[in-house]
Amino acid sequence: MTCLIGSVYPSLQNRDSNMTFEIRPRKGSDFAGLSVAIVTPFTDGEVNYPRLREQVEFQIEAGTRCIVPVGTTGESPTLSHDEHEKVIAEVIQCVAGRAKVMAGTGSNSTAEALRLTKRAAAEGADATLQVAPYYNKPTQEGFYQHFKAVAEAVEIPVCVYNIPGRCGKEIEVETIQRLADVPGITMVKEATGKLDQCSAIVGTTDLTVLSGDDSLTLPMMSVGAEGIVSVVGNLVPRDMIELVEAAAAGDLAKAMRMHHKLFALCQNMLGLSTNPIPLKAAMMMVGRDSGELRLPMTTLDASSMQKLQETLFAYGMNSALAK
Prior knowledge:
Elements: E1 33-37, E2 42-43, E3 46-47, H1 49-62, E4 66-68, H2 81-95, E5 100-104, H3 110-123, E6 127-131, H4 140-153, E7 158-162, H5 164-167, H6 173-179, E8 185-190, H7 195-204, E9 208-211, H8 217-222, E10 227-230, H9 237-249, H10 252-270, H11 277-285, H12 302-315
Parallel strand pairs: 1-4, 1-10, 4-5, 5-6, 6-7, 7-8, 8-9, 9-10
Antiparallel strand pairs: 2-3
């Protein structure tokens, strides 16, 4: 996949500060493009597996490259261990090789992350999404040892998920540079909101960087990221694919057009409340009902629901249009 700005970079120093950066093949480039972090549908307090399979088929039909079950969007903190494992297994079985599956198997307990990841690998997951350990706020050495332990325990690729807004602490660039030398760690889902962070990772490692913020997909691809793990893709996967493919092909005019088309949807929808609260409400409005939320997540208030409906209508979506 060719990044938006092509193969010419200004002189960039590597982490040893004595060599000029050159474009290299990315270890996780087979996960470039659109990945969608799907929601977990609940009905009467239970996981609705038929609805889960419908979501998978919707993504496959749209051309989504990779499906990511049981991430933040999938309300992973509220799933039991049995549910967590079963959702991943159901998605893998439903996908049946038609796309990749990157299973969300991270934890703030290294032992638990190892158990979940080994189980997902045994079920046939193509990769694992490993969120930074949350709440206990490890040191940078703790981050390094945690991800290294996971990577050494399984043979599937590891995507390190850097999201300090959720986890309370950032995985620093120097730590990611160290992790790039660990066999099996091939990707970073970068959700710090910092283009400088993305630039530094691309410029000094051979990891594939995936945007963790829908509204920053184009800016991040412009400095070398290769795709997005998307929330908005639950609603409009084809439009997200258009954006990512245009950026990858260097079609700046089309990429900018798609970016500005999607920007208001990304900002106005996801800015209403914590993900996946507004997403589940939007899916209901456009006829792709994913059921209820689990506490402590609660539904949007009436004012926010009105704003969400206006946002969806402005984008061109209604109950008969979910493309």
